[in-house]
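User: For my dataset I need records formatted as: sequence, then structure tokens, nothing else. Please produce one.
Assistant:
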Amino acid sequence: MKFRTACLTALSVAALALSAATPVSAAGSPRADNPPAKDCIPSIAQKTGGYYDEAPEKGLGFWFFMMSGTGTLPFSAEFAAEMKRADVRIEAVCPVGMLKGGKGFWTPVGSDGYSNMNFLNGRIWYPGGWKFTNNKTGRSFLIDGFWLHDLPFISKASGNGYVDGSKKPVETEMATYDTFDVFAQLPTPGLGGLGPKDWRYYLTDSWAKQLNTVLGTKFKRGDHALSLEINAWPLPGVHAPLKEGYEAVARP
């Protein structure tokens, strides 16, 4: 199984990268026909710099597997219920936006102004993120800039973590997922694009403990936090639909 997973992962990533080998930078401008969310708080990292990994700011050679599209990230019922119990306010960090009903996040994706791959350290980068704030204590945990890693055996999601308004991020390993499951799901029937249909993220022990300390939650390692459906296209400027059953709060 491990050999099968490794081969499938390597072949899939190579094919996808070659399908849109267009150098871009994390600071590139998004197209008007694949715009960022409007209901989001400003990004610290994109405005002032300071990604934990400096590569996105240096404009090195990046490629992302598609040029435009969307990602839909609904919370699991358990994750949403625990955030509600702990009285945690959830906000999106631009260009990421909120789904209606507080059901999760959505984000534009693609090499036109958003996503990139850093083959120097095996990271697939996305700008923006999310902020969790305990309404009673005011303590917060912000993720601003996140990535999937490490190519070609991607199985983790990490981000730039800022605790209680800190100015300097700490590299935060947030979640793990099943690599074989991801690439087995790459075709997405019905939406027309390419991407995993139900990519499940499970909390790491370290982030579960960090969230519990900062927010007063009661998460544990392996809790299903959210899922991801990507609807990505090799063409620029595709206004791709979100996952069926979900709507954005404010999508241009």
